[in-house]
Design goal:
- The chain is built from three helices and 17 strands.
- With 274 residues, it is mostly beta strands.
- The strands form three sheets. Strands 1, 2, 3, 4, 5, 6, 7 and 8 form an eight-stranded antiparallel sheet that branches. Strands 12-11-14-9-17 form a five-stranded antiparallel sheet, with no helix packed on it.
- The longest helix is centred in the first third of the chain and has 15 residues, at 2-16.
C-alpha cells in the first residue's frame, strides 16, 4: 500500500506542478506555506526524555464542506511503523493528546507524513489544517514545543540535481540549554543527508566546526544531540543520495535543561540569489 501510495502521489504531484526547473524538478516559487493537502512533521515523540516524558498533541481540522480522509504514515529509526487513516466529517476537528500512541500504538521518536486521500490517490488536492506540539507535564504544569508541519517545498535538496540548501539557525548549547537535530525520510528508498555545523559568528560556509551524516532507511527517522558545546550554531543540510519528490525533511530543536521547554526550528530552504 505504501509503495502504491507513493507512486500515485508522485504522479499526481508532477501533474499538478505547472512550473518546472530546467532539471525537471518542481520549481520552488515561495517559502514554507501554512495550509496544504499534505504535511510532514519531522520531529514527534512518545518517549521518556531527559527528566520528562514527551508526548505529541495533534489537532486535525477539515475546513471543507464534505468529508475528508487523512492518510498518516509513521517514520521511525527502523522505517515505516504504520499507515493509518483518519476520517473527518465536514468542518470536523479531531484532537489527539498522544498522537503516536493513540493512532499507531508507537513508543519512541519519529516523523509523520499526513496527506489527504484525494491528493494521494486521484491527484485532486483537498487542504486541511494540522497543528502539532510535543509536550511534557510536570509539577509546574505543561511545557510545550510547537512543531511546524512542512510542505513539499521544504524538502532537503540534492545539490547535484537542484540548487540551494536547507538551513537551521539559532541553535544554542550551554550550561542551561541543549540542542538536537535530525531528519525524517519520506522517500521510497534509503537516503543519506550531510549536516554541516557552523558557529553562528563564522563567515560563510567553508569551515564547519563539525560534520555529521544521517543514513536513513526507507521511511526512516534519526535524531542526534548537537556534538559541539558552548555557543550558538547553525546547520546546513544537503542530501547526498536518495532525494526525490516525496522528500527528506530536517530540523533542529533547542531544549532548556531546567524546564524542558523547547523551540523546534525547521530546516528552511534557501534558494540561490538571482
Amino acid at each position: 500500500m505504501r509503495c502504491l501510495l507513493g507512486a500515485l502521489f508522485v504522479g499526481s504531484f508532477l501533474a499538478a506542478t505547472s512550473i518546472s526547473s530546467a532539471e525537471g524538478l518542481p520549481a520552488r516559487e515561495q517559502p514554507m506555506g501554512l495550509v496544504g493537502s499534505q504535511y510532514v512533521f519531522p520531529s514527534l515523540a512518545n518517549v521518556q526524555g531527559l527528566g520528562a516524558y514527551f508526548r505529541t498533541r495533534m489537532v486535525l481540522t477539515n475546513m471543507n464542506d464534505s468529508p475528508l480522509t487523512v492518510i498518516a504514515v509513521l517514520m521511525s529509526p527502523t522505517g515505516q511503523r504504520g499507515l493509518k487513516t483518519v476520517g473527518l466529517a465536514s468542518f470536523e476537528t479531531r484532537t489527539y493528546e498522544d498522537f503516536l500512541g493513540e493512532l499507531f500504538g508507537y513508543t519512541g521518536g519519529g516523523g509523520v507524513w499526513l496527506i489527504d486521500e484525494g491528493s494521494a490517490l486521484s491527484g485532486t488536492p483537498r487542504p486541511f489544517l494540522a497543528v502539532a506540539e510535543v509536550y511534557s507535564d510536570g509539577v509546574r504544569g505543561r511545557t510545550s514545543t510547537p512543531v511546524t508541519g512542512l510542505l513539499p517545498d521544504d524538502r532537503v535538496v540534492d545539490p547535484a540535481v537542484e540548487a540551494g540548501y536547507s538551513l537551521v539557525t539559532g541553535l544554542r548549547v550551554d550550561s542551561g540549554n541543549r540542542a538536537n537535530f535530525g531528519c525524517a525520510n519520506n522517500e521510497l528508498g534509503p537516503a543519506t543527508v550531510r549536516a554541516e555545523i557552523y558557529a553562528s559568528d563564522s563567515p560563510g560556509f567553508s569551515a564547519p566546526v563539525a560534520v555529521e551524516e544521517f543514513s536513513l532507511v526507507e521511511n526512516g527517522w534519526s535524531q542526534k544531540a548537537l556534538p559541539v558545546q558552548n555557543g550558538q550554531f547553525r546547520i546546513l543540510f544537503r542530501a547526498i543520495s536518495g532525494a526525490g519528490y516525496l522528500g527528506i525533511y530536517c530540523y533542529g530543536v533547542n531544549v532548556n535543561n531546567s524546564s524542558n521547554d523547547g523551540t523546534s526550528i525547521p530546516a528552511a530552504y534557501v534558494r540561490p540569489f538571482r
